[in-house]
Design brief:
Layout lengths: L2 H11 L24 E2 L4 E2 L9 H6 L28 H4 L2 E2 L1 E3 L7 E3 L4 E4 L4 E2 L3 E7 L7 E8 L7 E5 L12 E3 L3 E2 L5 E3 L8 E10 L3 E8 L3 E10 L7
Parallel strand pairs: 1-3, 7-16, 11-14
Antiparallel strand pairs: 2-16, 4-5, 6-8, 8-14, 9-13, 9-15, 10-14, 12-13, 15-16
Length: 238
């Protein structure tokens, strides 16, 4: 994933809040640090929602069960991504693979679907714009809950709405949707009528420390895990 592609999409998609949006590499500055290890985490089947129970309530009743992922062994210095120290999260953690979403904007996302985490391919604790993309093939409810992998388990992920001053441009085949914020820091996307448009929630993702993190995404009969690495501080690109 090139930094240039991120820049192109952010210029087209949203008027960004200064200081929180990731952007491309600038001449004279180091580029964002990419994760050294990526893999796909296929969606897993889950029990159908109980009859007569509100969908959000039913999804919240599902237990959190982050995947077990062993820390990666340090790579030789010349094999690690630029700027990635051998003991840094970018080297130790595993991220979900980024896939091509075709002609959509943004046209990339981490995850196996039907939900994908987009907006960046390199994350920093100070906060960046995040976009949760949902395939048009799935129109049901969606609960997104963050977690920490490893560490002391006390670090938190914050999923916040964009400031009201930020304007999201309507893109072809993508419909921006609002989310309800749930206890525990999650966001809930309500079901919609089936259309050919993808859903997209635009927000801000930040953490109180660097490390290995993930999102548990629960739908009507599936659970998906999207893992990502958070580097310390502010993205060097912007």
């Amino acid at each position: 994933m090139s930094a240039a592609r991120i820049v192109t999409h952010f210029v087209a998609l949203v008027s960004l809040t200064a200081g929180v949006a990731g952007c491309g590499e600038v001449v004279g500055r180091p580029g964002p640090v990419l994760p050294a290890h990526t893999r796909s985490f296929p969606a897993e089947p889950a029990s159908p929602l109980p009859a007569g129970v509100d969908a959000m309530t039913g999804l919240q009743q599902r237990p959190m069960r982050p995947p077990t992922v062993a820390p990666n062994a340090p790579q030789p210095p010349q094999s690690a991504p630029p700027g990635c120290a051998s003991t840094a999260p970018c080297e130790i953690c595993t991220s979900s693979s980024i896939v091509d979403l075709g002609s959509l904007a943004p046209n990339y996302g981490a995850g196996a679907g039907p939900a994908y985490l987009s907006g960046q391919d390199s994350w920093y604790s100070a906060g960046q714009v995040a976009i949760m993309m949902v395939d048009s093939k799935y129109s049901g409810p969606l609960l997104v809950r963050p977690f920490q992998l490893g560490g002391d388990g006390k670090s938190t992920v914050t999923l916040a709405d964009l400031p009201s001053t930020d304007v999201v441009k309507q893109e072809p085949h993508v419909t921006a949707v609002a989310a309800l914020h749930t206890t525990g820091g999650g966001v809930y996307l309500e079901p919609v009528a089936h259309t050919s448009s993808w859903r997209a929630w635009y927000g801000l993702l930040s953490t109180d420390s660097p490390g290995c993190f993930g999102l548990q995404v629960d739908g009507d009969v599936f659970t998906e895990f999207i893992l990502f690495v958070v580097n310390p501080g502010v993205s060097p690109g912007g």
